[in-house]
Structure formats: C-alpha cells, structure tokens
Known about the structure:
- The structure is a homodimer.
- Chain A is mostly helical.
- Helix content of chain A is 69%, strand content 3%.
- A two-stranded antiparallel ribbon of chain A has the order 1-2.
- The longest helix of chain A has 25 residues, at 111-135.
- Chain A is elongated, with a radius of gyration of 23 Å.
- The relative contact order of chain A is 0.10.
- Residues 1-15 of chain A have low confidence and may be disordered.
- Chains A and B meet through α5, α7 and α10 of A and α5, α7 and α10 of B.
- The structure holds a DNA duplex.
Amino acid sequence: MNKKVSAITIATLPSxxxxxxxxxxxxxxxxxIGRAIVIGDYDNxxxxxxxxxxxxxxxSRAVTREAVKMLTAKGLLSARxxxxxxxxxxxxxxxxxxxxxxxxxxxxxxxELLRHFNQLRVAIEPEAAALAALEATLDEQAAxxxxxxRMVAAEAGADDTLAADIAFHVAVLEASRNPxxxxxxxxxxxxxxxxxxxxxxxxxxxASIEDHRAVxxxxxxxxxxxxxxxxxxxxxxxxxxxxxxxGDVTG
Amino acid sequence: MNKKVSAITIATLPSxxxxxxxxxxxxxxxxxIGRAIVIGDYDNxxxxxxxxxxxxxxxSRAVTREAVKMLTAKGLLSARxxxxxxxxxxxxxxxxxxxxxxxxxxxxxxxELLRHFNQLRVAIEPEAAALAALEATLDEQAAxxxxxxRMVAAEAGADDTLAADIAFHVAVLEASRNPxxxxxxxxxxxxxxxxxxxxxxxxxxxASIEDHRAVxxxxxxxxxxxxxxxxxxxxxxxxxxxxxxxGDVTG
DNA sequence: GCGCGTTGATTTGTCATATCTATCTTACTT
DNA sequence: AAGTAAGATAGATATGACAAATCAACGCGC
Lengths: 251, 251
C-alpha cells in the first residue's frame, strides 16, 4: 500500500491494458465500456464504481469520469452519489446515436434487431422519397441518379454493391430537405451493411435495379405518390424476406 | 494577475454565476452551453477554450471538460489539441437527443421546425399504428383506450387536453413493440406541446376525438391498414394546417 | 421494546495543480 | 527557397484533496 507499489502498478501492468484503448484514452474507454454494456456484461452484476473502473483500465479517475459522462449523455448510464453508477434500461438508450447503434449491431446481431430496423426504414424512406419528389433540387436529383448509376456499375463489377446501394438511399434522404430525415443517414448505412450479409444469403443476388430506378424516375417526375409506393415496395420486399426466414441466422 | 485577485474572483463573482447552473455544476453547464450553441451564439465567433469557459462560468476545468464531453457525445462539439473546441455543423447534431430537441424548441421556435417535425410524425406514427394493430397486447390496447378516455374527459374539462393527447400517441408508439418507434416518445410529446400553442390559434379547438377513436378501433380490430390510414389522416390534418398558415407565428 | 436522530462509511461531485502530447507557427539553417 | 528545428498553444492525463449526498448501522431516550 506504499507509494512504490502503486507507482509500479501504474507504470507497468496497465500500460499494456492501455494499448487496447487506442490513441485517445477517454474515447477508448467510452468504446470499451459502451460495448460491454450493450452486450449485457453488466446485466446481473453491479456496475463498478469510478475508482474501480479507473483501476481496472489503468487510467486516471478524470478519464473515467469523462467516459462515464459521455455514456450518460447517450442514455446508457446514470450516476448519483453514494448510489453509484448504474446501467439504464434499454428504453432510455439513445438508439439513434451512431455509437450505440454500432455497438448493438457489432456484437448482438439478431434477426429481430434487423427486423425492427427495417420496420423503421419502411416508415421513413418512403416518406422521404415522397418529400424528395416534391422538394429535391436538381443537384439532389443528380445525386440520386449517381447512386443509381453506381448500382448499375456494381452489377457489372465496376463498383461496390453495398456502397452503391447506400449512396442511393442516403441521397434520397438528403433530398427530403428535412433535417430529421437526414439524421437517418448513418442508420440506413448500418442497416444496409447488416442486411447484406443476411439477405444475400437467401435471395440469390441483391437489390433489384429496376425497383430503384422506379423510385428515381418518380422523384424526377415530381410524382410524390409514385415515389412513396416504389420505395415502400423496395423495403417491403426486404422486410418480408426477413419475416419469412426469421430465426435461422445466429451470428 | 496576482493570487489575491483571482481568489476574490473565484470566491465572489462566480458564486452568483454558479447559482444559475442549478444543483449540479456539470449538468448546469451542459444546459447553458448547449442552449447557447443551438441558439447560434457561437455561429460567427470562435468557440472559447476550456480555460476560458471554466473562467467565465466560475467552475473548474474538470467540470468544464465533462460538460464539453457530453456535448461532444451529442454531436454539438468536437475538440482537438491546439485547434481548440469547435461547434459542429447542424447536420451532425443528434436531433433525437431529448436535450438537443428541447434546446431547439425552447428558444428557436419556427414554423419550419414544426413542419419538419410533423413531416417526421406523418412517417412514424401511421406505421406505428399499423404495427400496433398487429402486435399490441391487451394491456397496450387498454393503454391506448385509456388515452382516448382521457381525451374525452378533457373535452368535458375533467382532464388536461395536451396531456391526454400525448398519452394517446405515446401509447400507440409503445404498442408497436419496436424499440426504435418507442424512442419517439419524447419527440412526439415535444411536438404536441409545441403544436398546441400554434394549431389552437387557428382551428378553434383541438384534435378531433372521432379521428382518434378511429385509430383505436382499428387497432383493437387488428385492422392494420385502417389504423395506418386513420393515423395518417390525423397527422396529415395538422400538417396541412401548418403548411397553409405557414409563417405568421414568430414566437 | 420501539422509534428517532446521530454518526460513520461510501461514492460521486468539485477543485487545484502539474505534466504530457499533439499540432500549428515561426524562424533559422542550408 | 525548401526543409527542419524550436517555441507556443490548447486539449489530454494524472494526482491528491476535500465537499456533498446518501444509506446503514448504531445508540439514545421514551
């Protein structure tokens, strides 16, 4: 318990631990703890105190507190004197935070999550397409067209299928000219990236270009209803695929 | 620049400043700075350094850093050595964070924001109602019914109109049994609270009970299509009201 | 014995200071 | 003129001390 021992402890053992936290200690810790919470490591055990966290990760209490504060801001934790730091129920997690979403998808993949994901998309994206048909600028129309072109190129092997698909859907969201819809950018990207390793396993090959083109054409023609229906069909297909096959994918 | 002056500064002037930060210094600072950013106070001026923020608010640097870290977690700020702390563009703000939303609505009310808000609702809530028709438990159906009952009571002056309306819409979201839809709880509550002081000014009195009852009936009868359409009509009305009158409300 | 206040321990909250590290600027050298 | 090295700046990290809040156990008086 003398100074020398603690000096050695801080100088040697944790230094290896700290390499796993990445360049920035606070952000590294945010990632490690956030992932652990989402996986469920603390479901039936008491969350450690600040001092314990700091000691276990070999960092100062200041760094620990900053990481905890960030997790609090994302809704995963709450802290009170004497009571300690506790994990909040999932209902208060900010699922639209890209970090939280990332942690969820990375290690806790499930068909159920994917279904919930696409149930949201089937609400958002058709409406975004409808808005885009009404309000998209020429530039934004061109961006959607470019996404479509990339999908065609990918079909021929000249581009990445997933990246092209994402570019198309993101362009539609951007063209809605509504900041709330634009927020779903990252979410749709994650959903597609996750979907692809699931749906491609069932339906031979991926997203039908013709269905995407229908969305694009409707938007260019300012056909709001048409755009909504076309997009709805597109995602509805994915959703029924998931619903039909639900449950045979574990990781 | 001597110790005595700074001691006085810390002991007297900022102590009054600190009373305005509420019980918890970090959360108080989070609120003050977050609100200032959202209002646009730093739009054309450089964001202060940590040391400056700490001095101006009369708190320690540790508290300042924790507040900044929380704002970073919400997407409002980013920090790098030597460059300083900078305000992020609105596109990276997490609009679904209840704090951010609160700051936006409180001081920067605009018809445009309200329209964007309800454009999102018209995507989310009809789909939530459709899901609820398929998957709601009896308890959840009862909760929706209770919300409707409260609206009827409010009509007779026996309950609060706004609270009843919120209870109904939140119950539908909960009944969707999809965690992503449930996240919109706070958002819908904010939207309604903001809407009411706008729409009530136009249309004599508020939400038609019959339209809400149609949603409830469809959900109980497991009529997914009917629930979607009924809810869509409900919010579509609000949206057209906003669109028609757009621009004549300033605060 | 029972109720109630008091004390003590625990954990987060806050402060002050020192040092480190990354990064941009400036000036100097070749 | 180009490249490199020294300096300055601002966030990043560590440490130690104390304050405030809260819960539990203890002990006191009735």
